[in-house]
Write a structure and sequence with these properties.
Length: 552
């Protein structure tokens, strides 16, 4: 996961350089907080582009997008916006809601008044006491873990308070004490609710904020470096869920750069690569980390040598693809991607194949290669569930007259393919031909407003939920036609459902349709009465459908 503190080390350095130029030249003309954790920026390039960013816990970049045509992982406009966001959020004071006062609050105040050289021991002792109070038979159960996390958060709050006062040394001691004691809880507690992990993330975030402080003293930096050097070698930070181990590696890299200890960090990364299993996430992560770090310190030749050695790994190949795309070498990028697709297919990774194909689409957009754009947008529009964005991108490559011919050709081909497949399985399936046709063509009919065709497919569909799915689209223009579809579907559903909850849902659907199509009230009530008389030994059905009769 990218962070505001280290994104410029994780993104391709050519893109970072251009993004920093945009930032320094004032290309980011507007920055707005659009909601909790969400920001929007306007960045002036060849046009005015819109960048959307989601920031978790004031630093973790969980998602981002840009309206520019660049289809790589990160564009220069996003980088420029992130530079502005980094500065903006650094100015904001992180206010955390204080929990209700309890016995731990008193202990924290006492600890604060008796700060001495062994402050670390005092906070460690305090945390151990809180853990003991909430541990039963060497385990912290689900009911106790929430209270435990709240009490520890009160202690951690002291660290944040000292950070905001500029007392970075004290803040780090608190964060380190809380973190080292809390992380071990993961080995003997039920943290299915994620409460302890949240505390750990808050500790890591506090350390990150301290490292990013411009006024941080050298001796504090050295202390943080030594701690991270040890902690990032402890498996507990990586083996119990969450990304906090990798987040700490981010901070370790940052402090190593500040202290000019890049060789120490690289040695750590090499050890991690050597110890990791082949093809494991950890090995891939640290290989990419090493490549990015080598580029950050200007060791381009070693970075390129490493890339060539591990091009069979998709994450490494992606770094190289990003670099050559930024340089405008599209033929080489496409060659790298084509080879990546072959490797992924041979390894049985269809998801990676799709990722590479999306990269090819992005390059096609940059090259204005209409044929390739059409091929991949059509493919992705129907790959899994219907994707409206890809569908519209496909459609936009045609004139209105061309599109009418193209979409009719698609519809005809789909009907032929679905029919052929259905005929192969005829007698082996319980549904009619209209069911797979509805699934395949309904999204297209809706997009093109071919509601008459949609209605025709629905007319032979017996599944009530499937036909009600399109109710809001068709009710104004085709109320009586819908009623004719709903009536047999109501009766069919009454025959197949068998639980109180299902009877209640059927009654709710009947009442909804009565309100939407008043003309059909008596017919729907008649079906409810028919079902009640048909199944006299189903008291739950009689009870629920009787509420429909009350609408008479």
């Amino acid at each position: 996961m990218l962070t505001l503190d280290t994104f410029d080390l994780m993104v391709d350095q050519t893109i970072v350089r251009h993004g920093r130029e945009y930032y320094e030249n004032g290309a980011v003309t507007e920055l707005t907080e659009t909601g909790k954790d969400n920001w929007q920026a306007k960045v002036k390039g060849s046009e005015l582009y819109t960048v959307q960013v989601e920031i978790l816990r004031k630093d973790y970049i969980t998602s981002y997008s840009c309206s520019c045509p660049y289809k790589g992982k990160t564009c220069k406009h996003v980088v420029a916006a992130l530079f502005v966001l980094r500065g903006e959020l650094a100015k904001k004071t992180v206010r955390r809601k204080a929990p209700e006062k309890d016995s731990a609050t008193v202990e924290v105040r006492v600890a604060s008044k008796n700060i001495s050289r062994d402050i670390g021991k005092k906070y460690t002792s305090l945390i151990k006491g809180i853990i003991r109070r909430n541990t039963k038979k060497s385990f912290v159960d689900y009911r106790s873990v929430h209270n435990l996390a709240n009490e520890i958060s009160i202690v951690l709050e002291e660290g944040y308070n000292h950070f905001h006062k500029g007392n970075f040394s004290h803040a780090f001691v608190v964060a380190r004490s809380v973190l080292t004691e809390t992380v071990n809880l993961l080995t003997y507690c039920d943290d299915s609710g994620g409460y302890i992990q949240d505390v750990i993330y808050s500790c890591v975030q506090l350390i990150r904020l301290i490292v990013a402080a411009e006024e941080l003293a050298l001796d504090v930096k050295e202390g943080i470096f030594v701690f991270l050097q040890s902690a990032t070698n402890d498996p507990v930070y990586f083996d119990y869920g969450g990304d906090f181990g990798y987040e700490m590696v981010d901070i370790y890299q940052s402090i190593a750069l500040q202290l000019n200890k890049g060789n120490v960090f690289l040695s750590f990364v090499d050890d991690q690569i050597a110890a990791a299993k082949e093809e494991s996430y950890r090995k891939k992560y640290f290989l990419v980390r090493k490549i990015v770090f080598l580029k950050a310190i200007g060791n381009i030749s070693d970075a390129q040598q490493l890339i060539q050695q591990y091009l069979h790994i998709a994450e490494v190949r992606q770094e190289e693809v990003n670099s050559v795309i930024e340089k405008g070498n599209f033929p080489l990028a496409k060659k790298l991607i084509a080879d990546g697709i072959e490797i992924a297919r041979s390894q049985g990774y269809p998801g990676i194949v799709s990722d590479w194909e999306e990269e090819l689409l992005g390059i096609a957009v940059l090259e204005d290669d209409k044929a390739t754009i059409r091929h991949y947008t059509k493919y992705f529009a129907f790959l899994k569930n219907f994707d409206q964005a890809y569908y519209n991108q496909w459609k936009e490559t045609f004139t209105p007259a061309e599109w009418k011919e193209e979409i009719e050709k698609y519809i005809e081909g789909t009907i032929a393919n679905v029919t052929s497949e259905y005929q192969k399985n005829e007698g082996k399936v319980w549904y009619s031909l209209e069911t797979p046709l509805l699934n395949a063509l309904a999204p297209v009919y809706i997009e093109e407003k071919y509601f008459d065709r949609l209605l025709a497919l629905m007319s032979k569909e017996a599944d009530l939920d499937r036909v009600l799915k399109y109710h809001d689209l068709l009710i104004r223009e085709y109320p009586l036609q819908l009623l004719a579809i709903y009536l047999p579907a109501f009766e069919y559903e009454g025959d197949v459902v068998g639980s109180r909850a299902e009877y209640a849902k059927l009654a709710t659907k009947m009442k909804m349709v009565i309100q939407a199509i008043p003309e059909g009230k008596e017919q729907i009530i008649a079906i409810a009465e028919k079902l009640i008389h048909k199944y006299p030994r189903r008291p739950a059905m009689i009870e629920k459908l009787s509420t429909v009769l009350e609408m008479r």
